[in-house]
Specification:
about 70 residues
Protein backbone atom coordinates (compact mmCIF):
# COMPACT_ATOMS: atom_id res chain seq x y z
CA UNK A 1 0.00 0.00 0.00
CA UNK A 2 2.79 2.44 0.88
CA UNK A 3 4.72 1.57 -2.27
CA UNK A 4 1.68 2.45 -4.41
CA UNK A 5 1.11 5.67 -2.49
CA UNK A 6 4.70 6.82 -3.00
CA UNK A 7 4.63 5.86 -6.67
CA UNK A 8 1.42 7.79 -7.26
CA UNK A 9 2.64 10.81 -5.30
CA UNK A 10 5.28 11.58 -7.93
CA UNK A 11 7.83 12.20 -5.18
CA UNK A 12 10.87 10.10 -4.44
CA UNK A 13 11.22 7.41 -1.84
CA UNK A 14 14.03 9.49 -0.36
CA UNK A 15 11.68 12.47 0.07
CA UNK A 16 9.05 10.38 1.83
CA UNK A 17 11.62 8.67 4.04
CA UNK A 18 12.83 12.08 5.16
CA UNK A 19 9.26 13.18 5.91
CA UNK A 20 8.68 10.05 7.95
CA UNK A 21 11.93 10.61 9.85
CA UNK A 22 13.61 7.40 8.69
CA UNK A 23 16.34 6.49 6.22
CA UNK A 24 15.61 5.54 2.65
CA UNK A 25 16.98 2.05 3.40
CA UNK A 26 14.62 1.67 6.35
CA UNK A 27 11.68 2.70 4.16
CA UNK A 28 12.72 0.21 1.49
CA UNK A 29 12.93 -2.55 4.12
CA UNK A 30 9.46 -1.69 5.41
CA UNK A 31 7.94 -1.76 1.94
CA UNK A 32 9.56 -5.08 1.09
CA UNK A 33 8.50 -6.65 4.38
CA UNK A 34 12.08 -7.28 5.50
CA UNK A 35 11.57 -5.07 8.54
CA UNK A 36 8.65 -4.74 10.92
CA UNK A 37 7.12 -1.40 11.82
CA UNK A 38 6.53 0.21 15.18
CA UNK A 39 3.09 1.44 16.11
CA UNK A 40 4.48 4.96 16.38
CA UNK A 41 5.86 4.93 12.83
CA UNK A 42 2.69 3.33 11.44
CA UNK A 43 0.67 6.12 13.05
CA UNK A 44 3.04 8.78 11.66
CA UNK A 45 2.69 7.32 8.16
CA UNK A 46 -1.10 7.21 8.53
CA UNK A 47 -1.17 10.88 9.50
CA UNK A 48 1.35 12.06 6.89
CA UNK A 49 -0.46 10.25 4.08
CA UNK A 50 -3.81 11.58 5.34
CA UNK A 51 -5.09 8.05 5.85
CA UNK A 52 -4.14 6.76 2.39
CA UNK A 53 -1.83 4.27 4.15
CA UNK A 54 -3.84 3.53 7.30
CA UNK A 55 -2.34 2.43 10.59
CA UNK A 56 -4.36 -0.78 10.45
CA UNK A 57 -2.85 -1.81 7.10
CA UNK A 58 0.44 -2.60 8.83
CA UNK A 59 -1.15 -4.89 11.41
CA UNK A 60 -3.86 -6.72 9.48
CA UNK A 61 -2.30 -10.12 10.21
CA UNK A 62 -2.13 -9.46 13.94
CA UNK A 63 -4.74 -9.41 16.66
CA UNK A 64 -6.32 -6.18 17.84
CA UNK A 65 -3.79 -5.90 20.67
CA UNK A 66 -2.27 -2.75 19.25
CA UNK A 67 -4.36 0.28 18.41
CA UNK A 68 -3.42 3.82 17.38
CA UNK A 69 -3.87 4.96 21.00
CA UNK A 70 -1.18 2.44 22.03
CA UNK A 71 1.29 4.16 19.70
CA UNK A 72 0.78 7.66 21.08
Amino acid sequence: MLREFISQSGESQRTWASRFGITEGHLSSLMSGRKGISGQLALRIDRMTEGAVPFSSWFEDQTDEQTPSDAA
